[in-house]
Structures are given as structure tokens and as C-alpha cells.
Design a protein that fits this description.
By secondary structure, the chain is of the alpha+beta class. It has helices at about 5-20, 80-85, 285-305, 310-320, 325-345, 350-355, 355-370, 380-390, and strands spanning about 75, 85-90, 100, 105, 115, 125-130, 145-150, 155, 190-200, 200-205, 205-210, 215-220, 220-230, 230-235, 235-240, 250, 260-270. The protein folds into 2 domains: about 5-50 and about 280-390, no CATH class; about 75-275, Sandwich (Jelly Rolls), CATH 2.60.120.560. Strand 7 (about 145-150) and strand 8 (about 155) form a beta hairpin. Helix 4 packs antiparallel against helix 5 (about 325-345) and helix 4 runs parallel beside helix 7.
Length: about 400
């Protein structure tokens, strides 16, 4: 039987290694509420993968674009090389006729929309745009362009600084669907900093399982708050609910005004629970599949350890939290019975030396009983409870 100090060192080393490799988080087993029918992870689960490390970027100013975060895909950074990420939408594969001016990509009127070479799905999109310095026209005729997510859902670009128009056509509206909550625009000529979180509609067998949402910040001000989508939007027409592609190019509109864009980048978003993600409220089927996967991983981990050690047996016992398994259950019962039998003949001083280890094992089995993973009369549980109680260690 190994000492608790070895067990703790093992846990620390294993947790650190998993953390560095991105496999799992650190923490204590048998700690928070157990998994249930819709959540594959325990609360504060040490087996849950840690978040990836991302180096934040910097904020933009009116004069200078900021830097994107380390995991961003840069679509335009003011260089000629990044302009090659964009194609004309008029003819397949044709280079764009938009030009770079002072580090910004400027629309050349009547040259047509531009689109990205790459297809983009659910994302956090950062984009900065500026209307011409000298305003011309009014309503929809002034500084008009558009950000077309997947090429089919428009977030409006328009110079609405002291320039009213119909509400669902304002800058940062989900065009023809939902006006922005406020008008947070800077004067024309200054760059508007827009951040969009986009989730496309999800359909299964012709039915919507998630309508999709758009959240928009304009110059740091929330203007679209998790706005539900109703399908593709367009001019003068009501949206018709329907599925979107998994991925499609981003498009920027040529509406006849020399609107400028700079500092365009995006970050891919992880899948939602409805499409295979494991965070959030999952279906029972998806939850149990993930729990089986976690249990198998823990048992594989235990199989690499010395089967006679406390560490290996506690790891096996931990797998039962995620999935019942008759063979594992019997192994844990035999080990627990032997563990308790080994404590019974110890002299008080010897038992005291094992206090921390006994408490650690006791906490594990108390957790398993509490969440009905094992019955209260499991193995030598009654004798174990009595031993711990006599020593005054149950707390």
C-alpha cells in the first residue's frame, strides 16, 4: 500500500502534466456534485479539460488598430498580402478591385461585393469600418455597406451619425429584422469598432433545434443582445426560417459608397451541445456517451498504474462516478475490503500515521455512497465508517 504523500505527489504530477498537454484540469476527485443525466462532468471535475491559453490582443483607438488575440485568424491587417484573402464576388476566383488606402481596405463603387477565400462558421468576428469623411446623401444613401455573415445574414453598415433612417436598417441592425438597441456611432471618417458573436441556426430533420443568435458590440456598447435569427434577411422581405450552411465565406457589400474597413479577424467558436459539444445542458444520449468516454479514459489511466496501490484503486473507483461497470465494481470492493482489513490490527500510533490516507479513502467512498454510485452496505463500508468514527475523523 502506498503512502498518502506518494498519492498526493502522483496526483500533482499527473494533473500538471495533463494541464500542460491540455488533456484535463487540476482538482480533487470525489469533490463536487456528481454527473447527472444532462451533465457528463462532475462539479469542479478534475477530468474536465482546461481552457486553452490565449494571449489577449490590444484595443483599437481612433488612430490605430489594435492587435488580435493569439488564436485569431487574420483576414485583413492593412497589408497587400492580406488583401489576397479577399476575392471579388462578381466572378469566381477573380481578385477584388477594392483598394488599400492608409492601411484600410476601401470599397471601389460598382466593383461588386468582396468575399473571403475561406469559409467561416460560428465565430467571434472583429471588424472596423469608417464612412467617408465628407458625408453625402441621407438615410440609406450615406456611407452604406454591409457585413454579410456566411454571405447571407447582414449586419448593417451605414453612416447614421446625425442621419436617421428606418429603425431596422440602422448601422448594426440585423438588417430588416432587429434595430440596434442604441446608436453608438462615432462621426464619419472615424473608425467604428464592431465585435460580433455569431451562432448559425441548427436544424435536424427539418426542425430547428437552435434558432441561432447574433450579439453585436459597437464601439464597446452592446447593440444586439443575443438576437434570435429568423433565417436569411434581405431588403423589403420578411425572413424565412431555415438552415444555414456549416461554413461559408464572409462578404462585404458594395453599395456605391467608398466605405473603408480595417483590422478584420475572427475566432472560431466551439460546437454547441446540440451539435456535439460537451458543455452546457446535453441530451441524455449525448451525456451518457460522454460519461462512458470519460470512464474509459480513467480506467485506461488506472491500468498504467500498479494495481495494488491506493492510487490505482481510487482512480478505478473514480471511473464508477461516470459509468457503472461490474468488473470495476468488484475490483474496488475487493480492494476496499482488504484496505479496511489492513487497518484493523494496527496499533493506535500506526493508525495515526495513516490518518491522512484513511481520510482520503473515506472521503472517496462517502462520496460514492452519497450519490448512490455504490450501496451503503458496499463491501466493508460499515466497518470502515465505524473505524473512522471511533477515531473522530469523519469530518
Amino acid at each position: 500500500m502506498i503512502s498518502l504523500s506518494y498519492w498526493l505527489r502522483f496526483c500533482a504530477v499527473a494533473s500538471l502534466a495533463c494541464s500542460v498537454l491540455g488533456f484535463a484540469s487540476t482538482g480533487s476527485p470525489f469533490y463536487g456534485d456528481a454527473p447527472d443525466r444532462h451533465h457528463p462532468w462532475a462539479v469542479h471535475d478534475q477530468n474536465r479539460p482546461q481552457p486553452a491559453v490565449v494571449t489577449p490582443g490590444t484595443f483599437s483607438s481612433a488612430e490605430q488598430p489594435g492587435k488580435p488575440p493569439s488564436d485569431a485568424v487574420v483576414l485583413f491587417d492593412g497589408t497587400q498580402d492580406s488583401l489576397a484573402n479577399w476575392l471579388s464576388d462578381k466572378k469566381e476566383g477573380e481578385p477584388t478591385k477594392w483598394v488599400i488606402r492608409d492601411g484600410a481596405m476601401e470599397c471601389v463603387p460598382k466593383s461588386g461585393y468582396v468575399r473571403t477565400r475561406q469559409a467561416i462558421g460560428d465565430c467571434q468576428l472583429h471588424i472596423e469600418w469608417a464612412a467617408p469623411v465628407k458625408p453625402q446623401g441621407d438615410s440609406q444613401g450615406r456611407g452604406n455597406s454591409g457585413i454579410f455573415l456566411m454571405g447571407i445574414l447582414e449586419v448593417q453598415v451605414l453612416d447614421n451619425y446625425n442621419n436617421p433612417t428606418y429603425a431596422d436598417g440602422f448601422a448594426c441592425s440585423v438588417y430588416s429584422v432587429n434595430p440596434p438597441m442604441v446608436n453608438a456611432l462615432r462621426p464619419p471618417g472615424e473608425f467604428q469598432v464592431v465585435d460580433i458573436v455569431f451562432r448559425r441556426p441548427l436544424y435536424r430533420e427539418g426542425q430547428a433545434v437552435d434558432p441561432g443568435y447574433v450579439t453585436v458590440f459597437c464601439n464597446g456598447v452592446l447593440v444586439q443582445d443575443h438576437t434570435a435569427l429568423e433565417g436569411q434577411n434581405g431588403h423589403m422581405k420578411r425572413s424565412v426560417p431555415g438552415p444555414f450552411p456549416d461554413k461559408a465565406p464572409l462578404k462585404l457589400q458594395d453599395h456605391g459608397n467608398p466605405v473603408r474597413y480595417r483590422n478584420i479577424w475572427y475566432r472560431e467558436l466551439p460546437p454547441r451541445a446540440a451539435e456535439g459539444g460537451t458543455d452546457g445542458l446535453l441530451s441524455e444520449e449525448a451525456t451518457m456517451a460522454k460519461r462512458r468516454e470519460i470512464a474509459a479514459s480513467i480506467r485506461a489511466d488506472a491500468a498504467k498504474m500498479d494495481a495494488k496501490t491506493t492510487a490505482a484503486m481510487l482512480r478505478l473507483a473514480e471511473s464508477l462516478v461516470y459509468e457503472q461497470d461490474a468488473v470495476t465494481l468488484e475490483q474496488v470492493k475487493v480492494w476496499q475490503t482488504q484496505f479496511v482489513a489492513g487497518l484493523t490490527p494496527l496499533a493506535p500510533a500506526e493508525l495515526k500515521a495513516k490518518e491522512a490516507e484513511v481520510k482520503s479513502v473515506f472521503r472517496a467512498f462517502r462520496f460514492l455512497v452519497k450519490f448512490k454510485i455504490i450501496p451503503a452496505d458496499f463491501g466493508a463500508q460499515e466497518a470502515f465508517d465505524n473505524l473512522v468514527k471511533i477515531q473522530g475523523w469523519e469530518k
